């Protein structure tokens, strides 16, 4: 029930710190993060992971790729489920297929699962719904523990997906001796606190939405590296609930075409959470501002500069999507409200897409 909340989406965004804390508990044993042995065996046995997902779950998969590659040394490909069948990639010798799906019912993803099972390859579903179709039909399941997500726009499930992917990759890296040296449990707890402080300052995001999006026809989200993965999720959230045409793309791609669309007043949301690319994205901000863009700079503490619009709490560089997604969700939410859109049930959309 949404209780005193005007919308499920708002309630679900508020639940996000709790979701991260719940995930830490659910995957903790004797103070250590763990995943079930058969799942760990399936991951360590694979020479390449193929992540299959749609929409927001696909965006979480893009982050998950970096986690498995950096924390566990396993190469990963991420595929949009509806496209996978048309041009199946050449598979490695020991592939593992990971399906990321909040509902566990997405037909596009299931269709790939059926095909992969026919071929006899191992499968793992990461889902929020125990007993869902993709959970039942895969060899293994990792649960998101996010609680029911009712609003059509996915929020807490994305945060949960990123957290669970981080845990799976981290535990794998520990088991294979390829781990990078950090305490994920502690860093996730710090991220939960960071999310908390963002949801506790909603008025700032409401103001940003009013300033940048009240009358906007379109909007851009730019970032590099993990911030690029996140920019696509920011754009999707804005599109689906506010109906503002939005695009997320890599900062370096601006000059290859998109910059032609920048006009006087075009809102551009620039993400600055990755130290090694901060300079590059700041350069992109200058380029769009020089062409009249209304730039909203969202920077992580420690990377901020005078004139930035929003500073978010500092977290481990790999975990920034977990925290930086939250202001983007809130900005979309308030943009939709300011434009009198039906936040929980946007036009033309269903919560789970059970047709191909
Ligand atoms: C976006 C959204 C959709 C879903 C997509 C996949 O907010 O809700 O893009 O992420 O339909 O759904 P699941 O994760 O249930 O497979």
Automatic annotation (TrEMBL):
Domain of life: Bacteria
GO biological process, alphabetically ordered: carbohydrate metabolic process; fructose 6-phosphate metabolic process; protein N-linked glycosylation; UDP-N-acetylglucosamine metabolic process
Keyword Coiled coil: no
Entry annotation: catalytic residues: 351 (for fru-6p isomerization activity)
Its EC number(s): 2.6.1.16
Catalytic activity: D-fructose 6-phosphate + L-glutamine = D-glucosamine 6-phosphate + L-glutamate
Subcellular location: Cytoplasm
Broad EC category: transferase
Domain SIS: from-to ranges: 39-178, 209-346
Keywords: Aminotransferase, Cytoplasm, Glutamine amidotransferase, Repeat, Transferase
GO cellular component, one term: cytosol
Quaternary organization: Homodimer.
Job of this protein: Catalyzes the first step in hexosamine metabolism, converting fructose-6P into glucosamine-6P using glutamine as a nitrogen source.
Protein's recorded name: Glutamine--fructose-6-phosphate aminotransferase [isomerizing]
Organism in which the protein naturally occurs: Lysinibacillus odysseyi 34hs-1 = NBRC 100172
Originating gene: glmS
